[in-house]
């Protein structure tokens, strides 16, 4: 492998040197079907090994039927890639932005194989998942390890670094805060006692939350991160709008057997309670998601909106960060930060900063898992 040129000693890096030693940026996402005949194969891949019958998968597949058998996530990833390319170009950085999915084309292993064929051997990864848990961090690292191993078995050279979970980093929090403030400002006439602010995220099994990182208590980092994000945004609402609101984190997209505890309350259950409490406007901020994929457009825009209508509530859905310029610029900042770390600079520290290289005990209580790419590999 040919070594990448390094910035001149003593000079502040600029342009492409800002991302040395990397040859490319890779956006890694969950994936989704793009046509009706892709729905069931996609769901089977997502649930492989769990013994879920096709009859149950078909029920979930109906959600996609409402949107033409197509998930919005891939189009949103294409838009994010274009935005990242634009932001990089504005900084005179000309590295390609690649795209790989875990569960649908373009599959991660194919992307890495093609990258190596193009002479791109050192890649920094940005995921479309911001939080810490098995499904939102560790599983991405497991898939990276498997894909890297597969291409290396073919004699190809690929090295991967990943930015750390960024839920509590400034680009994500400040962009979400601005979007919430804008939504709240549009309903300034509603008294505090008639308005509620809900921060919604994907529910996960309670047992998965326990393995989600070394939080203040054993595990539980997934919940802690969401509550910290909710607190920070609520503080911004109070400072900018003078609102006195209590931040609440609620959940959507629960699945699995009824006997298995998942994080609660479900957003629909909380909406019913709020209606009884005299609330008439509910602002819903989907801070658990980077873009408007299926859990947002179905679970919130369809199901929760229908629940709110039946209860006589006005539901105001805040946009996700998506391709907001401030968020995109912040993602590039995090990539630049990761490159500096890869060149031997100090790893970032501070409140809410999660390491890019996994520390011992990063996933406490985790009993069964595949090998994961936890550092520079």
In round numbers, the mean pLDDT is: 92
CATH topology of the largest domain: Rossmann fold
Order of helices and strands: EHHHEHEHEHEHHEHEHHEH
Number of domains: 2
CATH architectural label of the largest domain: 3-Layer(aba) Sandwich
Estimated radius of gyration:
21 Å
Question: What is the overall silhouette?
Answer: globular
User: Structural class per helix/strand content?
Assistant: alpha/beta
- Let me know the largest β-sheet: 4 strands, parallel
Query: Hey, roughly how much beta strand do the residues contain?
Result: 5-15%
Strand order of the largest sheet: 2-1-3-4
Distance between the termini: 14 Å
What helical percentage do the residues reach?
40-55%
Number of strands: 8
**Contiguous uncertain segments of 5+ residues:** 1-5
Under CATH at level 1, the class of the largest domain stands as Alpha Beta
Give the number of helices: 12
Summary of the model, kept short:
The protein has 377 residues and is α/β, with parallel strands linked by helices. Helix content is 41%, strand content 11%.
Properties at a glance:
Rossmann fold; four-stranded parallel beta sheet; 377 residues; 12 helices; alpha/beta; 41% helix; 2 domains; 11% strand; disordered N terminus; globular
Q: How is this structure best described in words?
A:
- 41% of the residues lie in helices and 11% in strands.
- The protein is of the alpha/beta class and 377 residues long.
- The protein has 2 domains: 170 residues, Rossmann fold; 148 residues, Rossmann fold (3-Layer(aba) Sandwich), CATH 3.40.50.
- The longest helix is centred in the middle third of the chain and has 21 residues.
- The chain is globular and about 65 Å long.
- The two termini are 14 Å apart.
- The N terminus is likely disordered.
